[in-house]
Structure formats: structure tokens, C-alpha cells
């Protein structure tokens, strides 16, 4: 708000001072509100970056199920910003839960829980009689 603009409109000094004070108050409220929104969006962006980094590492390690591995991560420890923390946690998870990663030495489902590779019921169909 410009004092000169208000003077041109024919307002007296007292009215101009009140208008300018109210305007400054509203501008301060808007500034605080906008800073809070910016801070919130920056936190969201940081979370997205962290999730992207985790997904990239999981893909590189050959994780079979990203969601399952992410559930084992300590998210609070990752918020510290230490880039080595993710590597340490993923190494520990891979050691303890090798079946979650492709190419691990830990055997994956065998026996009755393994997916069937045959499409038949074990007998030969010779036709209808």
C-alpha cells in the first residue's frame, strides 16, 4: 500500500496511518502463512528425494520386493542426512533377509510353496471316448 496513493484519494493522515497499519498486519500474516507452506513443501520434497534414493539403491541391489525391504528400514535414522546410513541398513537387511534380494545365496521358496511350472495335472490326456 502506498501512502501517496491514499493521499491522492483525499484521506486524512489518521485514516492513512490506520489503513497502512492494517495492511502491514495482513502482509505479515500472509508472509508467515507462505513461509509455513514453503517449509511444508520442502519437507515433502525431501521425503520424495529420500524415497527415490531408497528405490534406486533397492533396484541396484536387486530387491525382489521394494515394499517389504522398506518396511524393515529405520526411517527415523535415515532422516539424519547421513548418506552412509542407508547403505549400512541395507547391508544388514540383506545379510539377515537375503531371500528379499535376487542373486542371494539364501534359497527362495521350494517344495509345495514354489510356483508350479507344469500346466498339466500329471496325467496324459488321450482324448474323449
Number of structural units classed as domains? 1
Average pLDDT rating: 82
Shape: elongated
SSE string, helices as H and strands as E: HHHHH
Give the number of DSSP strands: 0
Structural class: mainly alpha
- For the report, how would you describe the main beta sheet? none
Q: How large is the share of residues in beta strands?
A: under 5%
Radius of gyration: 32 Å
Low-pLDDT runs of 5+ residues are 107-116
Number of helices: 5
The share of residues in helices is 55-70%
C-alpha end-to-end distance: 96 Å
Overview of the structural elements:
The protein is an all-alpha fold. It has one domain (3-102). The chain is 62% helix and 0% strand. It contains 5 helices and no strands. The protein has helices spanning 3-8, 13-61, 66-72, 75-78, 83-96. Residues 107-116 have low confidence and may be disordered.
Annotation keywords:
129 residues, 0% strand, 62% helix, mainly alpha
Quick structural gist:
This protein has 129 residues and is mainly α.
Architecture blueprint of SSEs:
Elements: H1 3-8, H2 13-61, H3 66-72, H4 75-78, H5 83-96
Amino acid at each position: 500500500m502506498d501512502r501517496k496513493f491514499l493521499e491522492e484519494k483525499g484521506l486524512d493522515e489518521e485514516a492513512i496511518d490506520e489503513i497502512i497499519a492494517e495492511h502491514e498486519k495482513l502482509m505479515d500474516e500472509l508472509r508467515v502463512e507462505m513461509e509455513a507452506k514453503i517449509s511444508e513443501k520442502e519437507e515433502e520434497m525431501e521425503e520424495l528425494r529420500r524415497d527415490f534414493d531408497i528405490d534406486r539403491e533397492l533396484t541396484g541391489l536387486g530387491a525382489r520386493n521394494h515394499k517389504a525391504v522398506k518396511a524393515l528400514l529405520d526411517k527415523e535414522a535415515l532422516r539424519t542426512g547421513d548418506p552412509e546410513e542407508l547403505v549400512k541398513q541395507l547391508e544388514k537387511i540383506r545379510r539377515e533377509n537375503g531371500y528379499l534380494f535376487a542373486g542371494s545365496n539364501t534359497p527362495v521358496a521350494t517344495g509345495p510353496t514354489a510356483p508350479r511350472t507344469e500346466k498339466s495335472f500329471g496325467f496324459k490326456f488321450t482324448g474323449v471316448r
